[in-house]
Amino acid sequence: MKNLRYFLILSSALFAFSCNNDDTPENGGGTVTDPVETNPANTQYKPAFSGQTRIKGMTTDTEFKAEIITSALTSPWGVKALPDGRLLVTQKTTGTLRIVTAAGVVSAPITGLPAVNPANQGGLLGLCLDPDFASNRMIYWVFSEAVTGGNISSVAKGRLSNDEKTIENATVIYRSSPANPNDLHYGGRILFDQTGNLIVSTGERSVLQTRPLAQSLTASLGKVIRITKDGQAAPGNPAFAGANALPEIYTYGHRNPQGLAMHPVTKEIWQSEHGPRGGDEINRLKAGANYGWPTITYGIEYSGQPIGDAIQQKEGMEQPVYYWDPVISPSGMTFYTGNRVPEWENNLFIGSLSVTHIARLVIKDNKVVGEERLLAGEGQRFRDITQGDDGALYAVTDQGRLYKIDKK
């Protein structure tokens, strides 16, 4: 009898140990399901580590609702919450801003921004508010600009006027280089890091001529850059070897990064990146690191041909935290810091374009341990998502909608 009791105690301890060391998130995360991706991959490439792709599914146990606040926006691309709870939205094709109230009232277009080139993937893109916006009313944004030689990704700043009708003293503070005539892969997200400097993503502009520049330290294409409010290289940026390396480069080897978010606990910058046919990525950015494009990738050309040497790993190049094959086309993203839906705490929410949903990634110890697809039945291309001061999530879609997602 005594041996049986010891056996039961030991068994219980082993069971507890195994439960505490599996991939279940510390906050529960929700109910575990089969992986959400069921379609065949485009390649036979193998992940570098377990859980790097097609992780187990997760469903939210807390009842939540999604409501359309307005459908009156024109190609919204970026959304940020103002201190009073209203939402500030960029409109890609018109090059104007709009303010939307919680009741769905949309302001007249806010003008005064530099002209954008709205062709194809260009236009007025991501935005962020100055940390001192409540007192200085400063806004920063990314846009595609037509210059001599083609188009570039540019960063500008300006003050939202007191009457909220215009942007005062709009000034371009940074221009990527070199210019190229095509109108693809601008990147376009922007945020402030914990030091008060700007983090900006730029694309490698898609074409074969510019693609290799993602690996060049003398070009600002295919990069995440870190600059001051005046557009200068930020203090403390990584120092790269080689002549003429650009001092504003923070990380390199990116394809078309359309999402940036700061982890609420670690304050590290996370990024979403469009792959080609397969190979969409979520990356945790490390200063000075090379994220591999186009030398390594989990995707292939749209034609089906391999990219480069068809390798997925190489010494000195970072692996994505997570990747998708087939793609979901990840765009804007945010970490959830509210308490309305407990199992969402510190989860990463990413707008998906080609598979028309919001991806929820449950993260533990810098690894993705669960994935959920939200609002998949809406048939919308979710371009950006942010958290409001009320703890709810707000998402904009290419089709002009603004959604509020919150506990029932």
TrEMBL record:
> Which Pfam families does this one have?
GSDH
- Domain Glucose/Sorbosone dehydrogenase, first and last residues per copy: 73-403
Highest taxon of source: Bacteria
Check the UniProt entry and state the signal peptide residues, or none.
1-21
Keywords assigned by UniProt, alphabetized: Signal
Q: What is this protein called?
A: Glucose/arabinose dehydrogenase, beta-propeller fold
- Species of origin reads Flavobacterium defluvii
